[in-house]
Amino acid sequence: MTIQIYNTVARRKEEFIPADPKRVTMYVCGPTVYSFPHIGNARPAVVFDVFYRLLMHEFGHVIYVRNITDVDDKINAAAVSEGISIGQISARYTRTYHQNMADLGVLPPSIEPKVTEHMPQIIDMIKRLIVAGNAYEAEGHVLFHVPSYHEYGVLSGRNLKELIAGARVDVAPFKKDDADFVLWKPSGEDQPAWDSPWGAGRPGWHIECSTMIEQHLGETIDIHGGGQDLIFPHHENERAQSTCAHHGKLFSRYWMHNGFVNVNHEKMSKSLGNILLVQDLLEQASGEAVRFTLLGTHYRSPLDWTDQVLNQSSRNLDRLYEVLQKLDDVDVDVDVSAEDMPVAFMDALKDDLNTPAAIAELHKLAKQVNTVFSHDSRQVLKKQLLAAGKILGILQQDPAAWFRGTNEIDEMEILALLEQRASAKNERDFKRADEIRNQLKAMGIQVQDRPDGTSSWRKA
Fold it and tell me: Which helix (H) or strand (E) holds 455?
């Protein structure tokens, strides 16, 4: 089965055929680094990480670019509030973002450009848009003239009047058209500024991504991804200015957008006070469980994050790791090959990245552990579980380490208590043995007695 993806601009699923199978290109809008990452920031990172893994499996060479927006009015406001530079703010939250995403098992992109490193290229693209008649200077600003691009609105599927009515459009007397958007704007005394032909200022949001894509991937890319909230105005504006800067050349061949994250059936927002920070969720459960939760709903559908969903994901992962633990006596190659990938699992992922269906196939595989007994059959099953888990970014830990967890646990104390319990059992002091088991339970430790009389432990 070939990869099928829902192309936002076409409004249907299409077969994914890269322009060059030996060089697949993908750009995904990354974070604006002015605060701690929340679960809404994590969803596209995890979704497109799985898609990146799938593309690597199918094509081998993929150039995946995910940017860092390190100049923005929100960054500037945070810097002013703390009395430090925008560079200090962006560096701090970039580090946090990297750590949080690593905790969720997200692979680094091939290239991670920063806006501040691309000012000459941004200015150059704006100049070209002015020369082409698609942009104009007005009172220290440079604006893109929306009526100059006749396909404006095609990506979002609405006409220009609807788009303007539904958007917070900046009203300014120097605009030629209400829909015109800023490519460059002047900076005040407390705002970051770069020299340009139009005066000291800074770029608009949309031109930044267009420039970084051109710089690192070329004029036409295979896939452009991001959250559903970016379709308009960000991606609509990107598409307009990039197409015009390249004299009508196709900008992106496929557009992919993930759905929103809701919290307890309500939209996640600062006004409701229900923003879920990744770092807080990581205190409640493992990064793998958070990742598994994000993959439990199809990427294009809204994800409703409830109080129970993270616990359920942890329990489901426990079951899968229990299966791997039962296969602990089976040796497999560290690097499982493409031939080990389960067909039904891969077909699910190739069908518009249907991770819920792929996870269902993973559970089907896990159930087979009690029905296969030969060493060869168990080895095949273990390889398939590990190979499928690698694509999803899960099940790569040692099962014993998974059950012991990563929180601060005094392993020496636990082992000492287990030895005391074993001695009590040998002396037939079962009351004392039960007391030690309860003591360990109170510490969050579950004792597992083996048929041979020995015991092991895991985090409850």
Answer: strand 455-459
Calculate the CA 331 to chain-centre distance. Answer: 32
> Which residues are paired to 32 by β-bridges?
69
pTM for this predicted structure: 0.88
The DSSP bridge partners found for residue 184 are: 142, 203
Kindly give the residue spans of alpha helices, DSSP state H, lying in 205-276. 205-216, 236-245
Strand partners, 185: 202
- How many whole angstroms separate alpha carbon 112 and alpha carbon 228? 21
Q: How many CA atoms lie within 13 A of 189 on its CB side?
A: 0
The Cβ of residue 79 has, within 10 Å, a number of other Cβ atoms equal to 20
Digit-coded pLDDT (tens) for 389-413: 999 999 999 998 898 874 556 677 7
Q: Which domains does the chain have, with CATH numbers?
A: 4-258 (3.40.50.620), 263-404 (1.10.730.10), 411-459 (no CATH)
Query: Tens digit of pLDDT for each residue in 31-48?
Result: 999 999 999 999 999 999
Neighbouring C-beta atoms of residue 295, cutoff 10 Å: 23
SS3 helix, strand, coil % of the chain, rounded to 5? 50, 15, 35
Judge whether 8 and 355 are in contact, CB under 8 Å. Answer: no
